[in-house]
Design a protein that fits this description.
mainly alpha
């Protein structure tokens, strides 16, 4: 799922779209993502975007 987020990073990322694209239910996709990363998809995307913005300002 991380590859999907990276490929969709410049767009609005929605759990239902991600789950459909990787052929999983929304709840299962969320559960797997949370187990792998320890955060929600929203938290991960926000942190990733902040990190990218920080690096672009440097």
């Amino acid at each position: 799922m991380m590859w999907w987020i990276e490929n969709q990073f410049d767009y609005v990322i929605r759990l239902d779209q991600m789950a459909a694209d990787v052929h999983l239910s929304k709840s299962y996709a969320y559960c797997i993502f949370h187990q792998e990363t320890g955060s929600s998809i929203t938290e991960h995307v926000k942190a990733r975007r902040l990190k990218q913005d920080y690096h672009s300002l440097r």
